[in-house]
Hints:
The protein is mainly α. Helix content is about 40%, strand content about 5%.
Amino acid sequence: xxxxxxxxxxxxxxxxxxxxxxxxxxxxxxxxxxxxxxxxxxxxxxxxxxxxxxxxxxxxxxxxxxxxxxxxxxxxxxxxxxxxxxxxxxxxxxxxxxxxxxxxxx
Length: 106
């Protein structure tokens, strides 16, 4: 039998609708072992927009525009950097003896 996505120790994916099948699989089996680049882009956009990363209850007709997140997250070097460190953290949790090497190489 071939290994499946849910057999992975760490799942790294774009998110933002590019790989919906990953979200579909994780909906039934998510053990918190994922790195989704789009989530970092959304968090950074929310911070740039001046909002907390938690949901807000803005009234209808609020007076500012929201930052639009480009789903092509690999074009944003800040997102790439944050994603690399998240991958290093995930790998370090799985392999503590080499955690410093993963972080150094991120």
